[in-house]
Specification:
alpha/beta; Lyase, Ornithine Decarboxylase, Chain A, domain 1; TIM Barrel; nine-stranded mixed sheet; seven-stranded parallel sheet; 11 helices; elongated
Length: 365
């Protein structure tokens, strides 16, 4: 089976590029001597997890308990649930752990800390630290960090943070500065809590951009990153990887040819409506267009509009090629996480147009 035989729209994954991305991040973290705890929220695939974990200690990060259950059912049990847990989800965590998983949760909330501490399942927890993103977490200078540690008691095993604001960086130097803030905040939090008598064994940080550009990771016990595996246009724009390292594309068919444009059957549901590259030097609309071979035969053609099931490609008239109705094209996504979330499988290629495998992926909460 080849790409030309596939139904559209569908998700195509180039295993050759995926492996190159996996090896690249593993090499970087190896030089820092910090273990990787890969974040599987983008890939959501046991097949990809096994490739990433080859030669690694074996722990992963997830963003939903559905992911935790899925990966645990495939034998990956060392799991960090890296979204603030609610008291109402603790029973499910406990159930999964009783069935063989080893899920650690995070919190920045005193009442949730109390609920964790009194739960009979003895659930391990990390305190979430805000290193500048202002999304979730405790500031290291706040007394709340000590209060949370006291409330968690023996359930407390560490601290974690995430420099999501590294996505706002527009130069390697700027992202490197954010990486140092990420590292220094969480390491300081660990040192503070240890000085107060708490046993802190896990000091966790991570994002794909800071993993790529951090100058030091001293004091960290693990690093979390995920989107680097598949790659996307936004990450290429902020130099997490090169554009030719993007392993994920959406295969689509031309369904109409109005003047100066192409209509394709990949719209908002197949591509997502993420417009992340709008704020970068190169605005790729809803995706950059390639031909079925993965080449830029259409020049700088981009998906300019995305309706529910229709994409409108704005043609680069200097690079016009014959694209009759039925022609299959590939679209590089702005945001791999959101694009992949619309699909239930990867059609895997390995540097050519031959489909060598079909890998299921999970979704939901």
């Amino acid at each position: 089976m080849r790409l030309a035989d596939l139904p559209t729209p569908c998700l195509v994954l180039d295993r050759q590029k995926l492996m190159r991305n996996i090896r690249s991040m593993a090499g970087i973290l190896g030089r820092h001597n910090v273990p990787l705890r890969p974040h599987m929220k983008t890939a959501k695939s046991i097949d990809i997890a096994r490739l990433v974990l080859a030669g690694q200690p074996g722990g992963i990060t997830v963003s939903t308990l559905a992911e935790a259950e899925y990966f645990a059912s495939h034998g990956i049990v060392d799991i960090l649930y890296a979204v603030g847990v609610t008291p109402g989800k603790l029973d499910l965590v406990a159930k999964l752990n009783a069935n063989g998983a080893g899920i650690t949760v995070i919190t920045d909330d005193p009442l949730t800390a109390d609920a964790i501490a009194v739960h009979p399942a003895e659930i391990k927890a990390l305190i979430e630290i805000d290193c500048g993103e202002q999304r979730g977490g405790v500031l290291v200078a706040e007394d709340l960090i000590s209060e949370l540690a006291d409330r968690l008691g023996a359930n407390l095993v560490g601290v974690m943070t995430h420099a999501g604001h590294s996505y706002q960086g527009r130069s390697v130097a700027e992202i490197a500065q954010i990486a140092e803030l990420e590292r220094s905040h969480v390491v300081y939090a660990a040192q503070r809590l240890r000085a107060e008598g708490h046993a802190i064994s896990i000091v966790s940080a991570g994002s794909s951009p800071t993993g790529r550009h951090a100058e030091t990771m001293t004091g960290l016990t693990e690093f979390r990153a995920g989107v680097y595996m598949l790659g996307d246009l936004f990450q290429a724009e902020i130099e997490t990887h090169a554009r030719d390292s993007i392993a994920l594309t959406v295969l689509t068919s031309v369904i109409g040819r109005p003047s100066g444009r192409l209509l394709v059957d990949a719209g908002a549901l197949a591509l997502s409506k993420d417009r992340g590259t709008e704020s970068t030097p190169n605005d790729f609309g809803f995706g950059l267009v390639q031909d079925i071979r993965g080449e830029y035969a259409l020049g700088d053609a981009i998906v300019r509009k995305a309706y529910q099931e229709h994409g409108v490609i704005e043609l680069d008239t200097a690079n016009a090629i014959e694209t009759p109705v039925g022609t299959k094209l590939r679209i590089l996504p702005n945001h791999a996480c959101l694009t992949a979330a619309a699909h239930d499988r990867y059609y895997v290629i390995d540097g050519s147009d031959e489909v060598v495998a079909v890998w299921p992926r999970m979704n939901g909460w």
